Amino acid sequence: MQAIADLRALLRHMQPTLAPGRYAFVTLPAGFPLDPAHVVASIREPEGLSVVLPEQVAVELGLPVAFTAAWVTLTIHSDLSAVGLTAAFSQALARAGISCNVVAGVCHDHLFVPVGQAQAALDALRALARSAGDSP
Fold first, then answer.
1. pTM assigned to the model
2. How far lies 43's CA from each of 47, 95, 99, in Å?
3. Which of 34, 29, 52 is nearest to 42 (CA)?
């Protein structure tokens, strides 16, 4: 499927879906052996390698969890150069009082929201999609 850059189309068709489980944001100690199959996302920071992995894996490995999240994926194939998508959904979530940590993959945007607010996040995102469909 071709990546979509048009903001209105992205919003109208983003179809947020909730992945099962809980996900932990952790910073790995230097040289920590972690099976790459457990890594959902990662980024190298001056303080170390930050990774997102299933919460149970973090607990089993004794890693301190900085944030526990639910994982929402916008199933629309968004163009990495699209303008305004992150601003639109983050504003909708902020209006609902929901924090959001975003990871962009090549094909989709992935939103990590507080576990207890997962359903409210889905509701806010679906309302945003409906409103984009209503606009001229």
1. 0.93
2. 11, 28, 19
3. 52
Return left, alpha or beta for 21; rule: phi > 0 is left, psi -120 to 50 is alpha, else beta: left
55 φ/ψ angles, rounded to the nearest 5 degrees? -55, -40
For residues 31 and 118, give the distance between their C-alpha atoms in angstroms, rounded to a whole number: 33
The DSSP symbol for 136 reads -
The pLDDT value given to residue 5: 94
- Alpha helices per DSSP H over 50-117: 55-60, 85-95
What's the CA gap between 70 and 8, in Å, rounded?
26
Q: Which domains does the chain have, with CATH numbers?
A: 7-134 (3.30.2130.10)
**Residue 124: per-residue pLDDT:** 98
pLDDT of residue 136: 52
What would the two tokens of residue 81 be?
Answer: 């150069």
CB 59 within 8 A of CB 73: no
Q: Which two tokens stand for residue 65?
A: 């969890």
Alpha-carbon distance 124 to 83, whole Å? 20
